[in-house]
Amino acid sequence: MPRLEPCLVLLVSFALTCRVLAQLSTNPCIPASNSTSSPCVELAESSTSSQKDCSQARCAVRFSAPCPRHSDLIEGLVPQGECCPLPSRCACRPQATCPPALCPSGSKALRVSMATGEPGNCCDAYECRTAPLEPGGEPAGCFARGKLRGEGARWRADRCTVCRCVSGRAHCTVPACAQRCDRPARLPGECCPRCRGE
């Protein structure tokens, strides 16, 4: 009767492969009576040969060009089952790394293009513009939310905030809510809360 040998004993030199085989089968290995090698060794050899042999692989040498401003180089990784790495690429840094738009006194930053998230266009682009002046030297309007508003113009900054352009500056107000109560309830479309059950 053939002698039973567990895989872990027979496959000491195939430690990595043998662990995989041990998970697949808990049965001990039985050497073939007319063979010099164990079926476990044959299984181990066939499983290691299924891994790609990259010793003869010729990978293209790629030199990474410097990434544009506000982006970083992401090194290409070797996908599982492949020999050569994917090309490196540039990727935008998180939006928080974009510098604030700074303009000299008397001018405002006006966004001229939005970021696309592509390297080279990671951040919004701004231009500093001065408000046009009336013949007497007073500002002809004010910049608000990226638009030039005429002197005296009114607009809503949000549902409850009304703004007006006065002497080249936006002056905004929120309505004062007269009612005070213990259990206020805010209703959709209304700025001031209403009192519940009072």
From TrEMBL:
SMART domains: VWC. GO terms for cellular component: plasma membrane. Residues 1-22 form the signal peptide. InterPro entries: CRIM1, VWF_dom. It holds the Pfam family VWC2L_2nd. The keyword Signal applies. The keyword Cytoplasm does not apply. PROSITE patterns: VWFC_1, VWFC_2. Keywords: Signal. Residues 140-196 form the VWFC domain. This is VWFC domain-containing protein.
